[in-house]
C-alpha cells in the first residue's frame, strides 16, 4: 500500500505544533483491538518511516480498557508486536499475522453451547446472561472450562502470537526500560474496577455454602454502595504524576463469612494514592475481565433474582473470571488463586477481585481525563478516542448525531447499569436495561458523565465519514472521525472539575458483526474487514479529508503527500493544471486538494508549489 510523497520538509515541519494530545482506546475485546490496530496501521501508512515515534510524537498519555488495554500492552510493551506492525502490516490477516493467528485459534467455534457446562445452574446462567456467552467461548477455545481463570486464559490467547506471553512475564507497568523506545516517555493507564457488591473471594470449607465475601465502598464518592469502583493502574513517563489508584477516594473493604453479620467482619482501607503499578499482564487481564461480574454473589441475587444456593454455586465456580489481587510489601500482585483461609488472614493482605473497567466507563476517557487533571493539563485539552462503535446508536433528539451508548454516557445519557446494558455479544439479560428516560434521568450511572449534554455532537462535528465494502469478506464497513468541542462537568468519582474546555476527537469504525469475542466466522471476518478498510480509506488519493482529520487530531503530519499529482504519473505539471482548471469552482473531491469543499485559488497555489517530479516513498 503506497502513497506518493513530495519532499516539502523545508516548508513544513514533520510535527505541526507542540500541543499535547492524549489517546483513549475503548473496550470491546478483539473487535476493539482490531479496530485500534487498523487505525494505527493506517496512520503508519501515511508516514514514510513507519515508526510509531513520528505520528505519536505529541501523544503524552494513553488509556485503555479490555481490547483497548490489549492493544496498548502490545504497542507499548511488546517490541515484537511493534516490529510486526512496522514490517508486516500487509500480512496482518494472513496466517503469520496477528489476526491470522487469532483466526487459527477460534476458527470453527460458533456461539458457545451452554449445555456443555458442568452444572445445571451454569447452563441456566449461560442461557440467561448473554454477555457471559463469549467469555465461556474463550474458555472453551483455551481448553479450560472446568477451572476457569481469566488472567491465564487471556495471556494464552491474546498474547500468544509473536511470543508476547513469554516476553511480557513479570514486566510491570512502571518498567519503562522494558518498553519499545517510542513509548518510554509516555504514560499508560489501564482501567479496572473493584466490585461494589458482595464477591466470592474463595471457597472455604464445603462447596458451595461456606464462602468468604467482600464488600467494597468508595469512602469519599457520592455512592454508598456503587456497583463498581474505578481502579487505575499505570506506568508514567519521567517527571509525570501517576493517576490516583482510586480517583473517587479511599477504598473500604469488609471481610466476613456468609454466616456472619457484615458488621462483625474485619474492615481495611486502601489509600486512594496507593502505588498503582502491577504487572502489565495482570493489569490488561483485569481490565478485560468482562466476566468478572460472575464472581458477584449479589449480581445473581439482585439483578437476576437467582436463589441464594444457585448464586453461591455460580459465584464460587466462576470467581476467577474476576482477577484476584492482593497487597504485599512489594506492592500489588495478581495471578493464582485466593487461599481458602480465614477471613481475617485475607483482610491482612487486602485480597480483593478486580474486573473490566468497562463496568464503569467502557471508553476509558474518564480515567484519561482524571490523569490529565492530575498533571495540570486540563485547560484546552485534546483527547483522541479510538472506538469500535458498537450498535445500537442512540440520540436524544433528531438534531443530534447518533452515538454508541458507551460514548453517549459521556454526555449524560443514563442507564441503571450501563456496562450490562451494552450489547457486547448478545441481548442483555432480563431487567438490566431498565432506565425509562435515559436522556434526562439522574441515576448513579450518570457519574460516568464527563461533558455537558449540550456538547452532544451533530453533523457539523463530522470531520470525515466513509463507507465501503471489504472485498475479501463482503462486509460493509463504516468509518467516522468526529471533532467535538466539549466542556467538563464535575465528576466526583473521577475527581474531575467542571468548566474546563477542550476537544474530543473520535476515530470510530464499525463492521457488520460486532462481538468482542469471535463467536462465529462472521466475527473473524469483521476484524479483518475493519483492519483492511481503515487502511484503504485513509490512503485513498481521492479522499484527503480522512488523513487531514487524522493530522489535525494528532497535531502532526508526515512529509506532505504528493496530492497535486492528479494524474498519478509521478510529476506535477501541465496535465495536472489542466485537470484542475476543468473542475474550477466545483466541489470535485479529487481536485479539492485542501478539503475546503471548492476547487479554487488554494488548489492552484498547491499545484504551483509542487511543480516538478514527486519524490515517492513506500511506507
Could you describe the 3D structure shown?
- The protein has 619 residues and is of the alpha+beta class.
- The termini are close together.
- The protein is built from 19 helices and 19 strands.
- Strand percent estimate: 15-25%
Supply the helix-strand structural class. Answer: alpha+beta
- Spatial shape: globular
Mean pLDDT: 83
What is the total domain count? 3
Backbone CA Rg: 25 Å
| Helix content, binned percent | 25-40%
Report the span from N to C terminus: 8 Å
Number of helices: 19
Annotation, overall tally of beta strands: 19
Largest sheet: 11 strands, mixed
Poorly predicted regions: 1-15, 205-224, 416-435, 441-446
Top keywords for this entry?
619 residues, alpha+beta, 3 domains, eleven-stranded mixed beta sheet, 19 helices, 19 strands, globular
